[in-house]
Amino acid sequence: MQHVLPSLPYRYAALTPTIDARTMTLHHDVHHVGYVTALNDILERVPELVGRTALWLLLHPDKIPKPVRTAVRNNAGGHINHSLFWRAMSPQGGGVPSGSLAKAIDRDFGSFEEFKDKFAAAGGKVFGSGWVWLVREYGRDAKLAIVTTAGHENPLEDGKYPILLNDVWEHAYYLGYESRRSQYLKEWWKLTDWNEASRRFEHMGDTAEDSWDVERESISG
Ligand code: MN
Asked: pLDDT tens-digit profile of 19-34?
């Protein structure tokens, strides 16, 4: 088993009432573990990919045999995205960003309130299952941007580094919010871990691999 499900950094019930314990349990112990298990199962049949990290698998689709390419991408993406997502939230989350990230948000979106409105609006518009992200391109003068992805695609595949993300698959919110995704997106700001977002922003390097050093402890394999 090369790829391993990371533990949640808090208890299943720690994010209540914004996200209920049952949703967190199913999300982590059924959905996320499903991606990890499927990825390991596929790799058992493709020896040349054993030893490759989840990030490498995501960034090198051309090196993955065509019959398993889509499945590897979906499951490596599901594993990476959820590993990032658990740590984008905290029971002590909420509030406002600080430091250089706060300045960059003001510079690139006008204000923190405008950023939050745009992020939630973009998440609300994702058709079907996907993710909404705050990203930054590589390079010293790169600006922040909001992007959305379908399925378990990740902006890393498009040369952008994830600073913050929210899961808008129905499994992320349906027990608590039913079809009210926009309400979930608004309530979710109570959980946002701005320390984690700042850490990711400040440790960004010039490439995905450089930047990823800060993730290695939490994303195995
Ligand atoms: Mn999910």
From this structure: 999 999 999 999 999 9
CA of 140 to the centre of ligand 1 (A): 32
Ligand 1 centroid to Cα of residue 61, in Å, is 22
Number of domains making up the chain: 2
What is the tens place of the pLDDT at every residue in 201-213?
A: 998 888 887 777 6
Q: Which of 87, 115, 131 is the last residue of a domain?
A: 87
Distances in whole angstroms, Cα of residue 146 to Cα of each of 33, 119, 216: 28, 6, 24
Q: Considering the domain boundaries, does residue 119 fall inside one? A: yes
Closest CA to 73 of 87, 86, 57: 57
Q: What is the CATH number of the domain that holds 60?
A: 1.10.287.990
**99: which 2 tokens?**
């430091």
